[in-house]
Amino acid sequence: MNVNCPLPVNGVPGIITLGHGSGGLMTHQLLQTEVFDLLQNDWLDQQHDGATFSLNGKVAFSTDSYVVSPLFFPGGNIGDLAINGTVNDLAMCGAMARYLSLSFIIEEGLELSLFREVLKHIKAAAQAAGVAIVTGDTKVVERGKGDQLFINTSGIGHIHPRAAIHHNRIVPGDVVIVSGEIAAHGMAIMSVRKGLEFETEVCSDTRPLHEMVGKLLDCFGEQVKFLRDPTRGGLASVLNEMTEATKLGVMMNEVSLPLNEQVAAACEMLGLDPLYVANEGIMVAVVSASVAPSVLGALRGMKGGEQAAIIGTVTKEHAGKVVLESRIGGHRVVNFLPGEQLPRIC
């Protein structure tokens, strides 16, 4: 008796289908022809369930997931966002990222060419940051049960020998510095969604911050007491988390906040407070008052830090609260964001 076994169904050409997440031939083809070929390195080439490598000394570990719509936006995309985001999370611990894992959750129907383009940006961002993608995972979910593409990255890296970053080292009189203009990332995405047009394009600030942090730690070491990247919830959320943890207050000055005119205009048009808008390429640093001017000068001399500014001081007054002095001299408490100001963008 002759038995004819059907050949595997390869789905719609150029489109991600559920078969690509089956663990069978289509999954193998997707990984081999797209992921492994493009991102190849000695660790990933082993195509194992994990990665083995050697690390000496104190290390930091971080993980994050990325969801954004649209996948591509002025100044960035979900691919470089995922790499830079985890590199930056490690940098805020005083660590230089070395190895990353990379996992995808893909919605059925995503164009293969779009996925390939994201991979290219992932590769470029990883090379720029000097990190190796050593392991990962790919899943496909049914149409309507995802939002095109979700990415998770986890990372590990060596902690700088002079890093002593912890909120419990903050004392009254310390100075709060932000490394660049706020709210650019969130408004770049919102301007695309809402069809807003300006004289100049509003672009995301997504970039890796590890080199900036490394240089600060080289120069100022333990005088850099606290670092955080103000992503979801923006600058206001970071400062509120800090004051809640330290039981100290922060006094900010609205005049000192670095804010691009186009970004400010976009926020005003949409009725959004830039203090709560997400960022992806700036950091908040709390440093000793004695080195604050030098830290500011160092940041302004670095790429991506040209617009750095001292925005406030740590105080014993109004413990656990962030207070903003307005341009006209009034004061208001800047609380945690009570709900969802923006659709998910990171």
What does this structure look like?
The chain is of the alpha+beta class. It has two domains: 142 residues, 60s Ribosomal Protein L30, Chain: A (2-Layer Sandwich); 167 residues, PurM-like C-terminal domain (Phosphoribosyl-aminoimidazole Synthetase, Chain A, domain 2), CATH 3.90.650.10. 29% of the residues lie in helices and 23% in strands. The chain contains eight helices and 13 strands. The strands form three sheets. The chain has a seven-stranded mixed β-sheet with strand order 8-10-7-11-9-12-13. Strand 2 and strand 3 form a beta hairpin. Helix 1 runs parallel beside helix 3, helix 2 runs parallel beside helix 3 and helix 2 runs parallel beside helix 5.
Q: Determine the number of helices (DSSP H or I, runs of at least 4 residues).
A: 8
- How many E strands? 13
Indicate the CATH topology of the largest domain.
Answer: Phosphoribosyl-aminoimidazole Synthetase, Chain A, domain 2
The overall pLDDT, averaged over residues, is 90
Q: For this structure, what is the CATH homologous superfamily of the largest domain?
A: PurM-like C-terminal domain
**Percent in helix:** 25-40%
